[in-house]
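Exam revision sheet. Question 4 asks you to relate a sequence to its structure. Input first:
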Amino acid sequence: MTRTSEEIGRGLAAPRPAQPIAPGTRIHVIGVGGAASSGAAIHAAAAGAIVTACDAGGPDPLTGAVAAAGIPIAWSHDPSHIRGADGARLVDRVAVTKAITSVDPDHPELVAARALGIEPESVQQVIADAAATRGRRLIAVTGTHGKSTTSGWMLDILVGAGTDPSGFVGAMLPAAIAGPQRGVARIGDGRDFVVEADEYAGNFEPYRPDITVLISAEWDHPDVFADEAAVVTAFADWIRRSGSATGEPPTLVANVGDQGVRRVLDALAGWPGRRIGVQLLADGEAAREDAAIIGTVVAEAGDGTDLVVGGLRGPGGEPDRVRIRPIGRHLAIDGLMAAGGALAAGVDADSILAGLASFEGVGRRFELKGEVGGVTVLDDYAHHPTAMRATFGAARRRYPGRRLWAVYEPLTYHRTAAMLDDFAEVLAEADRAAVIDIWAVRDPDRTITSAQALADAVTARSAVPATAIGSPEAGAAWLADAVEPGDVVLVMGGGRSYVAAEQLVERLRARG
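Answer key, structure tokens:
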């Protein structure tokens, strides 16, 4: 069953065009352990706000950068964060992620805020306002897949080009971009602000980008979108509202090799903005007429991918060859999209090529966690069948001939239930499969499916039974007894699956 954005964000202020944050504004961020919440807190503080934050989950990889920014974090939720003992308001604004309002719109801190006349806002609204505070040109990266890698890659290109951008990315950025205290935010003094724009339940609505980068459009978030047509409509309607920040004509950088993106372009007929088409050619495929930047993978090896890129030097310019570090066509597409966005922002071809070659990647995207006793452990954020299949392909090419374990922590019950057969089909392609407990996040109903149901569906399609292995911690212990030298263990998921990968490495090291 789908719900509207308003139902999922019940009690939140409606999204609005960004407004500068007045110096000294007191902003409280609830659930700061999330990526967007962490980014909102850091950027609001950099914009001159007095920021406080809370999260009942305790410290996690994202809260370190928040604390390093001097933002006090309470490890509990309590109305006293909003209202003083005398009943007076302690803050001027309250921001929260829809992961909380989806399951608890009457969260005690939200109730306290409303009682004081404070209308809670989405954390994305705070990020948009922070960008507007310093008059940034907004570059938004969106799509079903690849947002974090593409936005991180674009930031890396802009940093290398000397433009000193700011940005928010929904994954841990390398130190070369974010600084010594790695996090999801970069604070710069330049003109541009790169933001990962999430389509879930209208999260991208506060953003009115001057440049939009659209990577893919496919059915996902089945609690919001009934089908792919609804996804296409959401992207098209949002893009039509773009470009209001600076008055410049908006630009859309579109992956014209993606069928869903082409449907979005059809829905944008008559849109007055500029378009830059990007296409990564498959074997034997011809370039589309609307493709201005064209890439071809010419070689893949263990240490990277050789990519020929045409169009960066203008029509008729000689193509360039560059080696990028990531393995996999899906990541080569992300690199091309970052190149297209940087070109739209005015970066020269040489700087773009240098950035394509230097990018280290973002956290939890085919991230090597360790190699112990002949066992390789990788961590990846893949949580959709399409992304998982692409990541499998990258693992097969990076580690040919080795036994591949697919260890998956499903992200949300509703997605798992709606796509159970698709998940089972892709997991059955691995040599061994294991399923961690489902990470609920924003699920109000946790009865509609289970990790065991997915494991059973995989077993029905595979020669080797799949196993439901419990929590990430329990899963790490189970895997430590099951893996053998030569195995590649690909741990995937959008919740706490990284814990399983980290603890598996620790257990293997402890055994010597």
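Marking note for examiners. The radius of gyration is 22 Å.
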